[in-house]
Amino acid sequence: MDEPHLNATASVALLSTTMTYNFDPDKWYDNELDVLRARRRAGQITREQFQGAAARLDQRYQEMWDRLDGSYQLPVAEAGDPP
Fold it and tell me: Is this structure's pTM higher than 0.70?
């Protein structure tokens, strides 16, 4: 029987070679905010915790758009980098 960590490693290797451009930052943001709202309604976090988490989420969202906005450029290889 395969060892669990070997299966996980193989899965990570597969995922690292698979690329998709189907990521929707707006959907991600909405989902994350929905979770925060649900936790607030359930009393799992205080209003202050919700506000702090929402502010951090807004910051992450803006940083994400800053990275995604523009054309992708391949990094320049440095001497000694593997091919």
Answer: no
